Automatic annotation (TrEMBL):
Binds 1 [4Fe-4S] cluster. This is Adenine DNA glycosylase. It catalyses: Hydrolyzes free adenine bases from 7,8-dihydro-8-oxoguanine:adenine mismatched double-stranded DNA, leaving an apurinic site. Residues 35-186 form the HhH-GPD domain. GO terms for biological process: base-excision repair; mismatch repair.
Length: 345
DNA sequence: AATCCGGGGCC
DNA sequence: GGCCCAGGATT
C-alpha cells in the first residue's frame, strides 16, 4: 500500500466524531479551521458550537457587532482571528452574495485565511486537490520520510509543501487531508508517538534510524519578555467602575480592561491621580490598596505579564462609568476575566 | 527573514 | 521552564 492509502485506511478506522465532520458546508469548515489555528481541538470545540448556535449562517455573523463576536471569542486567544472572521463574513456576504468562493486563489484573499486554511477549505468543502500542511503534517512527513530540514525555514516550508503535494491522494483529498492531520494528532504525536502499533512502522525512515524523537526540526525559540501591569479597579459611590478598550497595536486589540499603569515601579498616589484624570475624575478624594500582595503572572507565548490589581475607591462618581452589573458584558482578556471572577463586584 | 499575536495542556 | 497546538499578518 502507498503512504496515502495507509493514511486513508487509518483515518477510516480511527477518525474522531467532531462537530464539523458531519458537513462540508464551507461556512462550517471555514469557522472550524479559523478556530483551530494554533489551537487544540479540545479547546476550540466549545467555541465552534457556541458560534454555530449564535450565528447559524455567515449572514448572521456578518450582521453581528464586533464586540459580540469578541465576547464569544473571549478566552480563545489570538483575537485578530475574531476580527478577521468578522471582516471575511462581511466580504462573503456582500461581495460573494453569501456564497463562499470555491477556488484556492480566491479563498487565499480572504482575511485570516492563509495557505493552510485556503487549502483546507478548498479540499474539505470543494474536494479540490490542494495539500494541507499544518503542524501535524510537518511532523508526519518529517518522520516518515526522514526529513531534517527545519520546518520553519523558508526552504523547509516550500519543501514540505512540495512533498505534501507529491504524496497526497487526489481521489479522496477531502478525507486524505483530514486523515494525515488526524494521524498526526492521534498516532504520530509530538511526544511518545505510538510507533509500536502504527500502520507505517514498516517503512518509517525516522523509526528505522531512531530519530523519531528528533523530528521535525524547528529553529530558534522565542524569548519571553517581562511586562509589569498595574490595573486600577476604580469603584465609585454608585457601584460603577471603569473599562477602557485597547486601541492600536499590541496584545488584545479591541478588548476591554481596567485603566492600566504599565510600570515596574509601584505607582504612588500621584501616579494614580494622574491616571484618573484621563477619565475626567478631577480632585476627588479616593483611597486605594493593593488587591494582590503576591504578583499574578499571566503568561502569553512571548510575554509574562506581572500584574497587580489596585482597588481605588472614589467618594464621588465616575463620569460615564460602567455599572457593576454590566461588566460581564464586555470582552476582556483572561487575565482581567479571572480577576473579575475572583473579586465579585 | 524575523517578530508578533493567547491561552491551555503536558511533561 | 519549554514545547506544542488543524497559522496568519506585519515589519
Amino acid at each position: 500500500m502507498t503512504f496515502s492509502a495507509k493514511i486513508l485506511h487509518w483515518y477510516d478506522v480511527n477518525k474522531r466524531d467532531l462537530p464539523w465532520r458531519n458537513t462540508v458546508n464551507p461556512y462550517n469548515i471555514w469557522l472550524s479551521e479559523i478556530m483551530l489555528q494554533q489551537t487544540r481541538v479540545a479547546q476550540g470545540t466549545p467555541y465552534y458550537l457556541k458560534f454555530i448556535e449564535n450565528f447559524p449562517t455567515i449572514k448572521d455573523l456578518a450582521a453581528a457587532k464586533e464586540e459580540e463576536i469578541l465576547k464569544l471569542w473571549q478566552g480563545l486567544g489570538y483575537y485578530s482571528r475574531a476580527r478577521n472572521l468578522h471582516a471575511t463574513a462581511k466580504t462573503v456576504t456582500n461581495e460573494y452574495k453569501g456564497e463562499f468562493p470555491n477556488t484556492y486563489k480566491e479563498l487565499l484573499q480572504l482575511k485570516g485565511v492563509g495557505d493552510y486554511t485556503a487549502s483546507a477549505i478548498a479540499s474539505i468543502s470543494f474536494n479540490l486537490p490542494e495539500p494541507v500542511v499544518d503542524g501535524n503534517v510537518y511532523r508526519v512527513l518529517a518522520r516518515y520520510y526522514g526529513i531534517a530540514m527545519p520546518i520553519n525555514s523558508t526552504e523547509g516550508i516550500k519543501y514540505f509543501k512540495k512533498i505534501a503535494r507529491e504524496v497526497m491522494n487526489v481521489k479522496n483529498i477531502r478525507d486524505y487531508n483530514q486523515g494525515i492531520m488526524e494521524f498526526g494528532a492521534i498516532q504520530c504525536t509530538p511526544r511518545n508517538p505510538n510507533c509500536a502499533d502504527c500502520p507505517l512502522n514498516d517503512s518509517c525512515v525516522a523509526l528505522k534510524e531512531n530519530s523519531v524523537q528528533d523530528l521535525p526540526i524547528k529553529l530558534k525559540k522565542i524569548k519571553v519578555k517581562d511586562r509589569f501591569f498595574n490595573y486600577l479597579v476604580v469603584i465609585d459611590a454608585l457601584e460603577q467602575s471603569i473599562l477602557k478598550q485597547r486601541i492600536g497595536k499590541g496584545i488584545w486589540q479591541n478588548l476591554y480592561e481596567f485603566p492600566l499603569i504599565e510600570s515596574q515601579i509601584t505607582p504612588n498616589k500621584v501616579a494614580i491621580e494622574t491616571e484618573l484624570k484621563k477619565y475626567d475624575i478631577l480632585n476627588q478624594k479616593f483611597e486605594y490598596y493593593k488587591f494582590n500582595e503576591e504578583v499574578i503572572v499571566h503568561k502569553l507565548s512571548h510575554q509574562h505579564l506581572k500584574t497587580h490589581f489596585w482597588i481605588v475607591t472614589l467618594e464621588g462618581e465616575i463620569p460615564n462609568g460602567v455599572a457593576f452589573t454590566e461588566i460581564d458584558k464586555f470582552p476582556v482578556p483572561v487575565l482581567v476575566a479571572d480577576f473579575i471572577k475572583t473579586f465579585k463586584f
